[in-house]
Amino acid sequence: MPKTFDLVILGGGASGLTSAIQSSKKGFSTLLVDHNKSVGQKLCIAGGGFGNVTNRNISYQNYHGENQHFSKSILTRYDSEFIQKFICDFGFELEEREHGQLFLTKPAKQLRDAMLQCAILQGTKLALNENIIAVEKEQNNDCFIVKLEHTEIYAKKLIIALGSPAYPQIGGSSKGVELLKSFGHKIIPFKPVLTPFVMPDNWELKGLQGISLPVKIKIDTRLLPKKEQALHKEYHTDLLFTHNGISGPACLQISLKWKSEMAILINFLPSQNILELISQERDSSQTTKKRQGTQKTLNFLAKLLPQRLVEQLIDTSIAHKKIAELSKNEINILTQRIHAYQANPSSCLGMKKAEAATGGADTKYFSSQTLESKIVSSLYACGEILDVTGELGGYNLHWAFACGFAATEFL
């Protein structure tokens, strides 16, 4: 007869590791299964290898899905301070960067190693490099049968924490949702997010790769119903031009809500007002002998923005005019181009470049307190496999850790 465990966890990411630590700490016989040769691979590369593990400002409003309120209870119980303490108790220190992002001061691989060692010392068993074939639930003894490539095991309780298809290079797949679907769970199709945009071949700003600057960016919601407009945020962070489009934190954030054929509005000069600057320039030319108003618009704007961007952003008929000679209509055009530039991406890059994916298991069929299935008792889902996706900035790792606590709190 296959060996029986109190809890079997499918998936050795941040959620699975946290679940294993908490379960084994309570004395439950625990088995952690992963199809990779090592666990926590996504954790190891997060934040450029220094794990952006949480954020100073955690709120359900930083998460997206069909039911944005689903995460509220768990995030309230396991807030930023709670997760910070959990990580620091392993002997790590955190440093705060912009927008409240909290990073490890040591490589994230060391946190992975510490978490794994903790789970093992507490009695967690491992089954790595194991393909998960199927999961069934016996009607006779109420146990799950977990069919692996090389063996079968029984589980009194089962956590599925197999993530999403994002970043398949390190094991991202749809296996988890396929298992949940076999139990009758509704699955919302995955979509790659936190990913760069591809622009059309004839885009007027092609060829600016390497240029980076702070912007304000948002979805153009003017054609959307008012209720939907309120769901879209504006982000103030860096944009990077690439060889085939745009990237950087600004684009990764906006990709969360972007859909095909949606336009994006970019403010290239978010901290200043071009109208006021032109007015000041003209006033200065009238009150001094420096004759600033006689300088060309191109030269004036090149002091505010990268010159290569200005040369492609502003029509030559305006760029080569003197500031003092600009008409009201030309100033309006200039203002629109700088403060409300409309970009129309042809697509976003796929799962191989996505840091996360929206969609997953419909949260309607899971407890928002314990993450237990409302369809199958003793079945839990954790982390990115659920239709809960955080913004860039430590929110997704925080959700993964928090889920590990929530799923094991009432075992």
Tell me about this structure.
- The chain is of the alpha+beta class and 411 residues long.
- It has 2 domains: 3-192 and 357-407, FAD/NAD(P)-binding domain, CATH 3.50.50.60; 196-349, Translation factors (Elongation Factor Tu (Ef-tu), domain 3, Beta Barrel).
- Helices cover 30% and strands 23% of the residues.
- The strands form 5 sheets. Strands 1, 2, 7, 8, 9, 10 and 20 form a 7-stranded mixed sheet that branches. A 7-stranded antiparallel sheet has the order 17-16-13-14-15-12-18. A 3-stranded antiparallel sheet has the order 3-6-5.
- Strand 1, helix 1 and strand 2 (30-34) form a beta-alpha-beta unit.
- The radius of gyration is 25 Å and the shape is elongated.
- The model has no long low-confidence stretch (mean pLDDT 94).
Task: List the defining traits of the structure above.
single chain, 411 residues, alpha+beta, FAD/NAD(P)-binding domain, Elongation Factor Tu (Ef-tu), domain 3, 2 domains, seven-stranded mixed β-sheet, seven-stranded antiparallel β-sheet, 14 helices, elongated
